[in-house]
Amino acid sequence: MTxxxxxxxxxxxxxxxxxxxxxxxxxVRKWYPRLKRxxxxxxxxxxxxPGIIYPEQDYLGPAFLISLYDGLSLGVDTMWxxxxxxxxxxxxxxxxxxxxxxxxxxxxTSDDKKKSxxxxxxxxxxxQRKEPTC
Length: 134
Description:
Elements: H1 3-28, H2 33-48, E1 50-52, E2 60-62, H3 63-73, H4 76-99, H5 110-126
Antiparallel strand pairs: 1-2
Helix pairs in contact: 1-2, 2-4, 3-4
């Protein structure tokens, strides 16, 4: 495999993974924020974490797919080689996503409230219909 083919394969894979993550975001965007963030971070780790394909080579690939392939073709013992990084990173991401606070909308200060009320009054005064005079 040439370097150009390798880079092109990564571009194609990353484009597809970004499309899958974007589709997931559209599906879960109205869910509870903690659950949504947990799911998005876990899938981002699974899609984008690189791992070494063969210990003798410098080529990288998606670690989740490498560990899945190794587990199906060579056995469960070899699956742990790249699956260890995926499991640890996904676990840390899940803990961080669960522990991060969910932000609430900030309440407007009293100065902001006064300004918005004055703006509403001036807008309603401008919109009043003026009757023609004779």
